[in-house]
Design a protein that fits this description.
It is a single chain. By secondary structure, the protein is mostly helical. The protein has a domain of 53 residues. It has 3 helices and 2 strands. The protein has a two-stranded parallel ribbon with strand order 1-2. α1 packs parallel to α3. The termini are far apart. The model has no long low-confidence stretch (mean pLDDT 92).
Amino acid sequence: MNIERPNAQPLSSEEIAHLETLRAVVEKALEDGRFSIYESERIQSLIWADGKVTYEELRTVNETVTSVMGNLLPELEWRSYR
């Protein structure tokens, strides 16, 4: 599937550095094949740091999970509210 983004602007060096940090955090989190609550919150805080979620951030997380896990999905740790 080819996705066209005609209004996309080139990424700044700061945005590229942010995406590399995000990629590294996701790779580290997936070393054990799962996302803990802490790891999920860390990733979310990186994504929302500027108050918005970008296509590039979502693509970075998706591509990193796929490159580390292949066709397997990572386990997710859930909070239990009792």
